[in-house]
Amino acid sequence: xxxxxxxAQDAPFTLSRDALGRLVYTDAEGHSQIGVVPVRAxxxxxxxxxxxxxxxxxxxxxxxxxxxxxxxxxxxxLEDELASREFVPQIKRLLSVSTFSSPSxxxxxxxxxxxxxxxKGEEDIRxxxxxxxxxxxxxxxxxxxxxxxxxxxxxxxxxxxxRFL
Length: 165
Known about the structure:
By secondary structure, this protein is mostly beta strands. It has helices at 72-85, 155-162; strands spanning 3-8, 11-17, 23-26, 32-34, 37-40, 49-54, 60-66, 91-97, 104-110, 113-119, 125-127, 135-138, 144-147.
């Protein structure tokens, strides 16, 4: 059972894991909530800002303005929990595209390995708000892929993507 205590925004709290691995939030008065869930307000645009600790009934228990406010142990516990719930593979490069019309099958190299995805239409490629060179690509199966920096991709990948933008 890992436990870390911190004071953020003048509200002391304790965050720990129970024997089943669930997060336990304990407020300043000693009231505990088992099974709390951290939720990012802006998971892609500002992943380290605006984290809400939500209780099992769906009520917000605590708001963390920025993860850097928290001590290292507390921050690591929250980051581990968030990482276990989120799945957004990052596309490192495009290997091939079956056709330049929709739908098309793409073979991509991601941070989780090589995979294929079906792009139903150009509208499934969106620029990430506030980041002019980041893209979100939604596959035909509803999986969202992130291109963190289009400008940092290799020439071949940029050329293929430009056909769809």
